[in-house]
Automatic annotation (TrEMBL):
UniProt subunit comment: Monomer.
Regions that span the bilayer: none
Enzyme class: hydrolase
EC number: 3.2.1.23
Domain Glycosyl hydrolases family 2 sugar binding: 60-195
Pfam families documented for this protein: Bgal_small_N (PF02929), Glyco_hydro_2 (PF00703), Glyco_hydro_2_C (PF02836), Glyco_hydro_2_N (PF02837)
Signal peptide annotation: none
Catalytic activity field: Hydrolysis of terminal non-reducing beta-D-galactose residues in beta-D-galactosides
Protein name per UniProt: beta-galactosidase
Residues of the Glycoside hydrolase family 2 catalytic domain: 300-517
Record-stated family: Belongs to the glycosyl hydrolase 2 family.
Any one cellular-component term (Gene Ontology): beta-galactosidase complex
Beta galactosidase small chain/ domain: residues covered: 761-867
């Protein structure tokens, strides 16, 4: 019994010791207590008073974090309202919240942390100021409130937030910028409780060779040593890191250490680690411990050469991004950050610029873990922080918060003339990694970051051609212009210029805000904020997929499949850190069904492609399997996936021409009786229950009636691009068909080599068959180079269109300088009247030009619609006329569309940007179209079914 009692006592002592150890270990960590919610989807209510505008002059409740305008308080302003001399509001908000603090915190160091407040913030705890008023809307700040708290009791926090700063330098930098201006505690607020002897912060430089240099800031007199433990991102221990040197200063311990056998960080393989840091006393006891996420990588800016990461020269495929969401303003969430970054990665981007202020912490954390290079930027726009003192404070706050992110490769000291040169040297004072500083839109240091260059600028014939060319904004994406439009031309130049380091599109998302003062409408302040590749809620515009194809890291050279097709494709590895054989390509030979079939596609054959062993930057070939019956396929698809299984892109290659594909679908029934009569200037034809009316004067179709219903296709074909006047219309009537031929006046002689005779006339010919189908053959002769549309057009009232189904490129429309990003297959779109970036935000847009048309089924409103088979290759469908945005400025719209409503054309226009007409954006922006030899007419063959 005595032995058992001793055993029980020892066991109890062991438990007490174990529990004590756990408690002691907990005591060495920092505890966080939120006083607000964590993001836009998780908020807490505080008491709130707004001084002006909506729901002002009385105490109410408000969700925190939030922008108070989106909660129905105050007034809305866009930054440029100040410049445009509109009303500019300067309301303030008062916040109150009661909270409790544990008695256990009495012996701790307690700080209150504000991740972001717009803009001047005065904080009181239990009636006493926590510290000086903070100025700057986009920067994290904190106060030591240990002596202000009532432990084990209720506490009161009061915050006065002025939407405008009392510092005009702050106002010019942040409040007069080209984005929406909000007010409020818009990012989380929380308490941090740490041991009295604590690590205040850590700055780490982790190199690609495993070397770690760190500054561990502490005011502890007891701290004498540091212990480092490296873990995998998910927490599995990797190694104890050997510390080589330790130097103690008044406010920090500086160490150098060496990690072994690490995996480096890059956007393609974003290997992250946890670095556990233990602050030790002279006995080896842990005073405080903290964990930091790190990635091992080395950045070098080599003058007159390029930007290197881990000794690899980088081409940055980037986009600018604001922290924004329509119904919450600048208040976002980790889920939204991840969603946006995944969309960027899906577009095959590898970089993002924080325009024009530091983002939420969770965005940078997601860039680290998912993999994107980042340019981090302090907030200015055209006017710098003229107050150098406040500028220094803001730079320090930015770097102290963001210094350890491996994704950040450069700092930007403001934007577009917003640079205070006195602040450039401030960055290295706080950045242990000594990352370089750029001035976006300027030639500064080793960089030329010019914005919105015209295409000819890439000739780069300038006195500063030795600078690394790195446009931090280009291809301005207002409405449907820019982004994908002419990106292919620009990117070919950038990719092949040794000193070009890539660039950043403007910008990621349309910044349209919910107007709680205007019934909940989406407002982009005219053309100021409608610049996105995606809509306000992430709706994908056509340029999204154009960028995805052009920036594919697997670059497949243009290829056409003909009867002697070898199966070989030229390929280039445009990754920076990935061998091509780590990716996969699947080849599918497919056939398509016609408009009357429910199932649209049949896969004839599918096989995996063996990709070659190609290191980044190298070129080679791959060969696909050709099944015995490959020539009976309609098309070939090549779908590439990366090492993680994400789709890079699917390329389409036509095997057959439209006529051979459509032959399978066009009815060749001989049934039916055809009857024609001429009455005055009308040609009346009845065939298989269809009644057609043609003009005897012009040969144009004037009316279609199926049974007792009108199908409103009429007034065509009007010949686009024909220079000749109509000469005569002939009608040839026979038992099995009726032909209507319209001949145009002779203009000049051409020689038809096939018929071995001169032919001089444009003409059209209708062939009406007993089964009720119409064949249309058109020939238009013109000069080699033209500006006008070449093709034919019909009228079909927009109000009568319900939707369309077609075989061709889709589902998005195209412009002459934005042809990439589509896939050839059967598509179906419902009617919408979206003006890209301005109204509706329903994508794909229904109206516009669609390439590689094979067949089209127009779905009618109050009518049966019709089907047309286009048997001529390289033909564009024009479906209706898109409404024009209100203010596209120089080139972000196309105003000149063919007459009529539905057209079949051989050439289409380009689209420009807010700042550039299309002809300033490269060869595909040229308005002149080349059609080859004079003796080869433009031919269109169509078959209509009703």
């Amino acid at each position: 019994m005595k032995n058992q009692a001793i055993i029980r006592l020892l066991f109890l002592i062991q438990i007490v010791f174990w529990v004590g150890n756990i408690y002691a270990q907990k005591e060495t960590k920092t505890i966080k207590k939120y006083l607000t919610g964590t993001d836009k989807d998780n908020t807490l209510e505080w008491d709130f008073f707004c001084s002006d505008g909506m729901k002002s002059g009385k105490w109410d409740k408000i969700a925190v974090p939030s922008c108070w305008e989106l909660q129905g308080f105050g007034n809305y302003n866009y930054g440029r309202d100040y410049k445009d001399k509109k009303s500019y509001f300067k309301e303030y908000g008062l916040y109150k919240y009661n909270f409790s603090v544990s008695e256990d915190w009495k012996n701790k160091n307690v700080k209150i942390v504000f991740e972001g407040v717009m803009t001047d913030a005065e904080v009181k705890i239990n009636g006493k100021l926590a510290g000086e008023i903070h100025q700057g809307a986009f920067y994290e700040f904190k106060y030591d409130v240990s002596k202000l708290l009532k432990y084990g009791k209720d506490n009161l926090i009061e915050v006065k937030v002025n939407k405008e700063s009392s510092n005009e330098s702050i106002n010019h930098a942040e409040r007069r910028a080209d984005f929406w201006i909000f007010g409020g505690i818009y990012r989380p607020v929380y308490l941090e409780a740490s041991p009295k002897n604590n690590i205040e912060r850590v700055a780490i430089d982790a190199k690609a060779n495993g070397n770690i240099v760190a500054d561990i800031f502490t005011k502890s007199k007891k701290a004498t040593a540091v212990k480092l433990v490296l873990k995998e991102d998910l927490g599995k221990k990797v190694q104890d890191v050997s510390i080589k040197n330790l130097n103690k200063e008044d406010d920090k311990l500086s160490i150098s250490a060496q990690a072994l056998n690490i995996k480096t960080w890059n956007p393609e393989k974003p290997n992250m680690y946890q670095l556990q840091i233990y602050l030790l006393d002279k006995k080896g006891n842990t005073l405080h411990q903290t964990t930091k996420k790190i990635g091992f990588r080395t950045i070098e800016i080599r003058e007159s050469d390029g930007i290197y990461v881990n000794n690899q020269k980088i081409k940055f495929k980037g986009v600018n991004r604001h922290s924004f969401y329509p119904n919450s303003g600048r208040t976002t969430s980790k889920a939204l950050s991840i969603e946006h970054i995944k969309m960027m990665k899906d577009m095959n981007m590898n970089a993002v610029r924080m325009s024009h202020y530091p983002p939420d912490k969770h965005f940078l954390e997601a860039c680290d873990s998912i993999g994107l290079f980042v340019i981090d930027e302090v907030c200015t726009w055209h006017v710098p922080y003229l107050d150098t003192k406040v500028g220094k404070k803001i730079i320090k706050e930015t770097i102290v918060r963001d210094v350890n992110h491996p994704s950040i490769i450069l700092w930007a000291n403001g934007n577009e003339s917003g640079w205070n040169n006195k602040l450039d040297n401030e960055y290295h004072k706080h950045d242990i990694q000594k990352r370089e500083v750029i001035h976006p839109w300027a030639i500064f240091g080793k960089m030329n970051t010019m914005h919105y260059p015209e295409y000819h600028i890439f000739a780069y014939d300038s006195p500063r051609k030795d600078k690394i060319y790195f446009p931090t904004e280009f291809m301005h994406g207002l409405y449907d212009g820019g982004h994908g439009a002419s990106l292919d031309s620009y990117w070919k130049q950038i990719w092949n210029m040794p000193l070009a380091a890539g660039g950043f599109l403007w910008d990621f998302a349309d910044e349209s805000v919910i107007r709680t003062d205007k019934g909940g409408i989406l407002d982009s302040d005219g053309n100021h904020a409608a610049d996105g590749i995606v809509g306000p809620y992430g709706e994908k515009e056509a340029s999204y997929f154009t960028v995805k194809e052009i920036w594919s890291p697997i670059y497949i050279a243009e290829r056409f499949i003909r009867d002697d097709f070898s199966g070989i494709f030229d390929v280039e590895n445009r990754y920076h850190f990935t061998n091509l054989n780590e990716c996969k390509i699947t080849a599918q030979w497919v056939n398509f069904n016609g408009p009357k079939k429910a199932k649209d596609i049949k896969v004839m054959s599918e096989s995996n492609v063996n990709l070659p062993d190609l290191a980044p930057g190298l070129k080679g070939t791959f060969t696909i399997n050709k099944p015995k019956n490959w020539q009976s396929a309609d098309a070939l698809y090549l779908t590439a996936t990366d090492a993680t299984g994400n789709t890079i892109f699917t390329w389409s290659y036509l095997v057959k021409n439209p006529k051979n594909i459509n032959n399978n679908f066009i009815s060749d029934d001989k049934i039916g009786i055809i009857k024609s009569t001429i009455s005055g200037d009308k040609i009346l034809i009845n065939a298989n229950g269809n009644r057609f009316v043609f003009s005897k004067k012009t040969g144009l179709l004037k009316e279609v009636k199926k049974g007792d219903k009108i199908i409103p296709l009429k007034d065509g074909p009007i010949l686009l691009g024909s220079k000749s006047k109509l000469e005569m219309v002939n009608v040839i009537d026979s038992e099995d068909k009726v032909e209507i031929i319209a001949l145009f006046e002779k203009r000049r002689k051409y020689w038809d080599w096939k018929e071995n005779k001169e032919t001089t006339q444009d003409f059209l010919k209708w062939t009406i068959k007993p089964n009720g189908t119409l064949d249309l053959h058109v020939e238009i002769r013109n000069i080699k180079m033209v500006k006008e549309y070449m093709g034919i057009t019909f009228s079909f009232p927009e109000k009568e269109v319900r939707g369309m189904k077609w075989l061709g490129d889709g589902p998005y429309r195209v412009w002459r300088n934005r042809m990439k990003g589509t896939q050839f297959k059967v598509w179906e779109n419902d009617y919408n009247n979206t003006v890209t970036g301005e109204t509706e935000f329903v994508y794909p847009e229904f109206k516009g030009f669609f390439s590689s048309l094979n067949w089209l089924n127009v779905k009618g409103n109050h009518n049966n619609g019709f089907t047309v088979y286009c048997n001529s290759k390289d033909t564009y469908l024009r479906m209706l006329t898109p409404d024009q945005p209100e203010d596209p400025e120089k080139g972000a719209s196309v105003k000149n569309f063919p007459k009529g409503d539905i057209s079949f054309v051989k050439n289409i226009p380009a689209i420009g940007t807010k700042f550039k007409e299309p002809n300033k954006m490269g060869p595909y922006g040229n308005e002149i179209h080349y059609f080859g030899n004079d003796d080869e007419p433009i031919v269109l063959d169509l078959t209509f079914e009703f």
